[in-house]
Structures are given as structure tokens and as C-alpha cells.
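Hey,
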Amino acid sequence: MNREKLQAMPLYRKALEILEIVDRIVRLVPEENEFTATVAGNMYSDALQLAPKIAGAEGVDLYDIKMENAAIIRKCAREIYVGCNGFLMEDFKEVEYLEMLRSEIDEFRVLFAEWVKTFDQWNYVIDRWGLFNPPGVNYDDIDPDDNIPWDNPFDEED
């Protein structure tokens, strides 16, 4: 996928907006509050992964690789959302940023769900770990490609 097409994706742009909000929140955290600083660091780490994982999923065609990236994106977005609780427990003063962040994550979730629906379930290799197979495909299924004879009928026998 080319860079312009990626940057035009609403999901990708939303991921960058989330990173920007998290970055603002991180800058507002008092360094002496170790708990909040740790939560902020974790949120920032998660926010940093969103856009690259979207790009990674868009750069491949295989369903299992797309789903693996999608699972990481989902986990990171949920961790950011839940991380807001840590700030609220510590009486973080700039609550409007947390509300804005949660609102952005809610919008991201809808864009994400619609994006995942576009994944081509028929373009896959069997995930032998069993996590990211399309519906109806199991980790121990026989790979249809294994049944293709590779003998060339036009080879001359010695």
C-alpha cells in the first residue's frame, strides 16, 4: 500500500489523533507521581503501536497476518481506554483530555470493526497455532496446497 493511501485511511488518521492526545496527557503528568507516570508510559507505548500495526496489516494480503496485527491493535486500544481509570484514581486534573481520549477510542473502535470486515478470509495460509484462521478452518486441517503433485509429467524418464 502506498503512503498516500495509508495516510488517507480514516482508521490510520484516528490512530495518529489518539497518539497526539496521549502525548499531551503524558506531558501533563507530574513526574513525582510514579503510578500515573507508569500508566502514562504504558498508554504512550500502546498508542505508538496503533498506526504501525495498521500499516503492517495493510501491507499484506494474508488473512492470518492481518488478524494478528488487528489483535494487537485491539489490545493496545483497549489498554489505552482502561488506562484512563488510573488517571481518574489519582485525581488527574485535566479530565477533559481523558474524556476526549475515550471518545476518540470509541470512534476508533467503530472504524476498526468496519476495517476488519474488509479482510479477505479466502486469502490465507493455515495458522498452525490456531489463533487467526478464518471461520471453518482449523489448525490441524490438511493444507490443500499439500495435495498438489509437483512432478512434471513432461520430464523425461532416465
